[in-house]
C-alpha cells in the first residue's frame, strides 16, 4: 500500500521514508506524485526561511543550549511542513507543479520528480536548477508579501554563502575574520574596534544576513550603507526595512557594494569621519554612548537601534568571541 504523503500534517517532517514514498507514489499516480514532491519542495524553502529568521535571535542565556536548538530545528521542520500542506505557504508548490506538469512528460517528468526527491533528501540542488543564492526578490512570485520575500531572500542567500564557506559559522569566526579591518578603522576614527565589529554584527546578523548580489556572492556591505547620488562605485539592489513614524515599511533600495570587507570598513570609517552629522560619534569610548550617538545622528530609522547595538556591544556573545 502506497503512503499518501499529501496528508503531510499527519506525518513527521523528519520522516526519512518520505523521499522513497515520493517515488512510489509517482509510479502509481504521476500527477499526485508531482503535487506531493512540489509540496515537499516548498516545505524545504519554508524551513530555510524559518531558520534564517531564528538565526537573527540572540542565543545567549539559560534557556538556550544544544538541546533547545535541536528541538527548535525539529519544530521549524514541522511548522514548515504544516504551512505548505495547509495551503498557507508561499505558492512555490503550485508554481513548480505547473511548470513541471505543463512542460515535462513521461521519463522527463519522472526525472524531475527524482531531482526534487534528491533535494528533499538533502543531496543538494538538481543540476538543472539555479543556485539557491541566485533567487532574488524580483524572481519571487508577485503574490508573495514583501516581508516574506525579504525573509526568503535572506534565507537563500545565507544558505548559499554557508554552502560555499563564505559566511562565518560562529560569532568567534566573525570577530576573527573582521578584527584586523576593525583595528585599522579604529585608528582613523578613535572608536574602539569592538564597537565597530558590533555594529557590523548588528547590520549583517553576524554575517548570516549580509547583502548579496543576485548570484549569491557577497556585496561585503557589512554596515548597510546605501548608495546615494554621490556614490560612483558598485551597487546592489535589495529589500530593506525603514521606520516611518515608528512603523516598519519595506522597499527595494540601492546599496553600496565592495570588493572586500577591508574596503567596507574603510568606506565606513570615511563616512563617520567626513560626514559632519557623525562628528559626535568620532572618538566615543563608551559603547552605550556610541550606539546612542549613532542613532541620534540618523544612522538608522529603527527607534530601538541604539538599544540593539548597545545590547551587542555589552552582551555575552561579543565578549566570549573577543576572549577567543
Automatic annotation (TrEMBL):
Signal peptide as annotated in the record: none
What does the UniProt entry say about where the protein is found? Periplasm
Q: Is Disulfide bond given among the entry's keywords?
A: no
What keywords were assigned to this record? Cell projection, Cell wall biogenesis/degradation, Cilium, Flagellum, Glycosidase, Hydrolase, Periplasm
Instruction: Give start and end of each Mannosyl-glycoprotein endo-beta-N-acetylglucosamidase-like domain.
Output: 164-317
Q: Which SMART domains match?
A: LYZ2
Q: Which InterPro entries match?
A: Flagellar_prot_FlgJ_N, FlgJ, Glycosyl_Hydrolase_73, MGlyc_endo_b_GlcNAc-like_dom
Q: Which GO terms describe its molecular function?
A: hydrolase activity
Q: Report the superkingdom from the record.
A: Bacteria
Main localization category: periplasm
Record family assignment? In the C-terminal section; belongs to the glycosyl hydrolase 73 family.
**What biological function has been recorded for the protein in this entry?**
Flagellum-specific muramidase which hydrolyzes the peptidoglycan layer to assemble the rod structure in the periplasmic space.
Q: What is this protein called?
A: Peptidoglycan hydrolase FlgJ
Provide the gene name from the record. flgJ
